[in-house]
Amino acid sequence: MNLFSSRVKARLYKKGYQGFTKDDYAEAALAIGLIDENNPTKEELEKAVSHLINKQTYQLTETDEEVTKTLSQQENTTLYKQIQDETKGEITFTNNFEKAGAIQEAFTASGIEVSDIEVMGISGDIENKFSDHKTFIVSALKAWRNYQIQNGEQQADEIQGILADIRTDAANFTNRTNASMTATAN
């Protein structure tokens, strides 16, 4: 799955839409005139999400309410079975974009808000193969915690550097002021 598909899938998931195929994402990319699937713009992502939501809404309005309820129940059952299957078997990711999409979905389901940049950073810090879904989630959460700690440390270092610069500037100003006053007195 490319970056475009992963990000669109994550955004759809956040809005409660699921069940799209790779062909749906490819069709959305063509429909919106996507330029680079590995570097989609925010506008392209928004257009693709709208396109797929409209497509799904149109398809659902063609059916009656009972069929819609049945489809929804089937999707929930399928999702539950997929999660069960993932907890029983091994999970292997072929690239960081695929991993990032899974991380985004897991975090969203857990109520954790994380940016695309954070997700990509986290995906590069964890393995590509996990014995089960639970192991994957634990690894992703540990990587997210480490990412947050590292960001906090970087901010603290930056603040300390700025404060040191301020102290140096104040000392220089005081020295120049004293030198000017001494020169004026003489």
Quick summary:
This protein has 186 residues and is mostly helical. 78% of the residues lie in helices and 2% in strands.
Average the pLDDT over all residues and give the rounded result: 80
N- and C-termini, Cα separation: 77 Å
- What is the radius of gyration? 25 Å
The main sheet comes to: 2 strands, antiparallel
Helical region count? 7
**Ranges with pLDDT <50 over ≥5 residues?**
75-87
N-to-C SSE string, H for helix and E for strand: HHHHEHHEH
Spatial sequence of strands, sheet with the most strands:
1-2
Shape label: elongated
Strand content: under 5%
Strand-helix topology:
Blueprint: H1 3-14, H2 22-32, H3 42-61, H4 65-88, E1 91-92, H5 96-110, H6 116-125, E2 129-130, H7 133-185
Antiparallel strand pairs: 1-2
Structure, described:
The chain has helices spanning 3-14, 22-32, 42-61, 65-88, 96-110, 116-125, 133-185, and strands at residues 91-92, 129-130. The protein is elongated. The N and C termini lie far apart (77 Å). It is mainly α. The chain contains 7 helices and 2 strands. A two-stranded antiparallel sheet has the order 1-2.
List keywords for this structure.
186 residues, mainly alpha, two-stranded antiparallel sheet, elongated
